[in-house]
Amino acid sequence: MRIKVLLPLFVLILANGWLFGGIWWNRSGAATGEITFDQCHFYGPASHHLQKEGRYFTLRIASPAILDGEMMADTAGYGRRKRVRAAYLLIEQGGPAWEEYFTHQTEKYSETKRVTGSNTLVFADSAEKAADLKVPDPGSTGHAIINGYVRIYENGQGEEYYFRGIARPRIAIDSDYRDIFKEIYARGNPKGVAASPASCEPEYRITLRFGARFEPWISRVERL
Amino acid sequence: MRPPEELLNCLKYIFALYLRVRQAEHQGRRVNKLEAERRSRRIRAFRDELSELEEEGILRLPAEDTSRVSAYHDELLSRLSAAFDTDLNDGEARLSWGMRLVSGLGAVALSLAVFLFFNHYWDEFSTPLQVTLATLAPFIGWAVTEIVAYRFKTSYFTELAAMVTIACFVLNLHILAEIYNITPSPIAFFSWGIFSLLLAGRHKLELVLGLGLASLAVFIGASLAGFTGYYWRQEFIAEFYLAGFALILLSPVVLPFSWVRENRFIFFLVGLLGIFLLLLSHTAGVPDSLLPFSSEGRKWIYLAVALVAGSGVLALSVRAGWGLGAYLAAGFLVLFLLFKYFDWFWDKWPTYIFFLILGLLAVVVIVILRKLRLMGRGEARDAD
User: Fold this and answer.
1) CB neighbours (10 Å) of residue B313?
2) From the CA atom positions of chain A, what is the Rg in Å?
3) Taking CB atoms and an 8 Å cutoff, what residues of chain B touch A15?
4) Is A148 within 8 Å of A89 (Cβ atoms)?
């Protein structure tokens, strides 16, 4: 009888223990990736999205379309969605992967229209196992492995190409940093108008770390 | 005047059942709530019929016998009510349905109140306080459920408390995963499902058991998607979730546990509801499919599966005398065929023709069902 009473309690303890154990394991030991950016990465096109309450922000990572490892010349009018596969993704900040993506975007769209802001995060590789990912490019200013997926599309002519996405793009903001992020939001949206990334002066540096389970957390926010 | 033979048989049956119950009690076996409710219903029906027969002057039992049976039934009803919270009369039975409905709605309202309260003040709380609240909530809920179950004899308050506790547990894992940026996993559904099952088993709560089984079915479906390499949050593949609900449906048949057998109707109900909803959503093209055919081919296969499953369950439920299963299957078949009819003909026919044929189809269905009823009566007469 007493076992029947205590079994639900045991499940609660086990589930929470498992969860906190996973958090501890993720954050203990050496980080598997680190990305640093300033508050200007929240302003302008293709920027990270920050909530005004300072509760969380959403990472915006460019996902170049790939066909057999090569960038597609044209992604317009893509057709049927096919399967979404779970994958480990390598993200890089700047470096050759970003340059290639940026060149492609500026060629594709008119030169007068800005296609990107300060944010230079890009998916550089994806694989079924983290060990199969390519070595991060030394030319990038930051990199990390993250859990996500690869979505396969078919363009209607028998050709398949791929886009990548992360499993949890939202990064929670710890209450210690909430006021700073509210301030960043207020400066970026004066009277509801988005600030221009060109006129943005870096004032805050934000560091994201990625742990053993490739899950991120905000490890540092500094005033510059 | 001799009492009708059916009545004597009925009395004999009740007495035999009583002996069986006593024997079971003697052997240490439990009479489950379902059996207790059935027995209570039979006693109430017996009393109603007996009073009708007496009013019409067809049967009048000697006063001594009437009072002995009545006293025995009163004692048995109170004993069953004390042990299983069964209804003592038809008025109570009707109130019980109302209480069951209100306890479900109350649980939803209270869970929403908890969620909206925290959501309103959430940004005012520090992260450590948020973590503490999210972690403690289900533990407090569990303790409250135990206190409520101890304090009140009726299970409706316990069910309400248990459902709020489950909502707290869902929030617990969800909020902590948000705060610590944890990759979403189907294991959360396993935890919620097992927790609900244990609470339902401890306090004999049917709705909570149903929620737990549905959660386990989702866990099975999502895990199958994960094992085969698909990303479970973006891929909703019908076959994986059908497998999950089919396992729930078949559990009472394959699992040798008495608790599963006792609650078999909840297992059947959740399994069937899940399967029927998946088949219905397939008509709207919502879930993907792994079947190696064109989308048109898949539609025809699922049409055949839906018709076979619906009519098969209807026939089995009618044969087994399971009213709820029969209603569920009939409702599903009607809805499914309506969806298909709409899908095929809405764009092709003028609206007045569409509804005219729909009305005529309803008439045809009534004629067929009436004929089936008459055939059933004929067979019953032949058997007599």
Assistant:
1) 23
2) 20
3) 169, 172-173, 191, 195
4) yes
Q: How many Cβ atoms sit within 10 Å of the Cβ of residue B98?
A: 10
Distances (CA, A) of B354 to B307, B326, B334, B344, B346: 22, 28, 16, 10, 7
Residue of chain A minimizing CA distance to B175: A172
Among B180, B191, B235, select the one facing A15 at the smallest CB separation: B191
C-alpha–C-alpha distance, residues B166 and B169, integer Å: 5
CB B369 within 8 A of CB B314: no
Cβ neighbours of B193 (radius 10 Å): 22
Convert B15-41 to b/e letters by CB count within 10 Å (16 or more is b): eeeeeebeeeeeeeeebbbebbbebbe
Question: Which phi-psi region, left, alpha or beta, contains residue B300 (left: φ > 0; alpha: ψ -120 to 50)?
Answer: alpha
pLDDT recorded at residue A157:
66
Q: Which two tokens stand for residue A71?
A: 């960038």
**What gap in Å lies between CA B117 and CA B299, rounded to an integer?**
45
Q: Which two tokens stand for residue A164?
A: 């990548």
- Taking the C-alpha atoms of residue B193 and residue B214, their distance in angstroms, rounded to an integer, is 7
Hey, what long-range contacts does B308-314 have (CB within 8 A, 24 or more apart)? B309/B275, B309/B276, B309/B279, B310/B276, B310/B336, B313/B272
- Mean pLDDT for the stretch of residues B252-269: 87
Cα separation of B39 and B45, whole Å? 10
Question: In 10 A of CB A14, how many CB atoms?
Answer: 13
Cβ separation A8–B231 shorter than 8 A: no
Rounded average pLDDT per 10-residue block, chain A, 224 residues: 84 96 91 89 82 81 66 42 82 88 76 66 88 88 90 69 85 88 79 60 88 92 86
Report the relative pairing of strands A66-67 and A56-58 from DSSP bridges. Answer: unpaired
Q: What is the pLDDT of residue B193?
A: 96
Q: Using the beta-carbon criterion (under 8 Å), do A8 and B195 form an inter-chain contact?
A: yes
Interhelix angle for B187-203 vs B155-179, to 10°? Answer: 160
Cα-to-chain-centroid distance, residue B152: 24
Helix axis angle, B206-227 to B90-121, nearest 10°: 50
Nearest to A155 by CA among A103, A223, A79: A79
Alpha-carbon distance B323 to A154, whole Å? 48
Tokens of A21: 């154990």
DSSP designation for A223: E
Most distant CA pair in chain B, distance: 82
ipTM of this predicted structure: 0.86
- Written as one letter, the residue type at A105 is Q
Q: What are phi and psi of B143, to 5 degrees?
A: -65, -40
More confident residue, B358 or B222: B222
Burial class (CB in 10 A: 0-12, 13-18, 19+), B170: buried
| Closest residue by Cα to residue A202 from A219, A188, A213 | A188
Amino acid at B65: D
CA dist list (Å): B31 to A34, A107, B70, B149, B251: 62, 77, 22, 20, 21
Residue corresponding to tokens 């710890």 = A174
List residues of B whose CB lies inside 8 A of any A CB. Answer: 122-123, 125-128, 130, 135, 138-139, 142, 146, 169, 172-173, 176-184, 191, 194-195, 198-199, 201-202, 226, 229-235, 288
